[in-house]
Write a structure and sequence with these properties.
Layout (H helix, E strand, L loop, with lengths): L8 E5 L7 H22 L4 E6 L9 H15 L14 E6 L1
Parallel strand pairs: 1-2
Antiparallel strand pairs: 2-3
Helix pairs in contact: 1-2
Length: about 100
């Protein structure tokens, strides 16, 4: 059981498959900003979250990425969501500490 007295933490990853270092860093910066704006409000305390950049992370509108992240967070917490599965959307994985 995770400890609820710890704030949620986030990790970010982007593989070489999506591009060179500049592209990977840009994708991770976008994911970090998404996490900064959304995790404090919607993530469960005591859990770690891993956001994985996909090839579409740079091409998608920020609002769309934000709605993808919210849908993924809702799915990890057991809430229902209308988000459709798409392999190019960012992936959120919840990890117990």
């Amino acid at each position: 059981m995770p400890s609820t007295d710890h704030a949620p933490r986030a990790g970010f990853t982007a593989t070489r498959r999506i591009g060179n270092a500049v592209i990977r860093n840009r994708a991770k910066r976008r994911l970090r900003e998404l996490a900064r704006l959304n995790l404090a409000k919607t993530a469960r305390p005591g859990f770690d979250y891993v956001l994985i950049a996909r090839s579409a992370t740079l091409g998608r509108a920020f609002k769309d990425l934000e709605s993808d992240l919210r849908a993924a967070l809702a799915a990890t917490s057991g809430e229902s969501t209308d988000a459709k599965a798409n392999v190019d959307k960012p992936v959120v994985q919840e990890i117990n500490r």
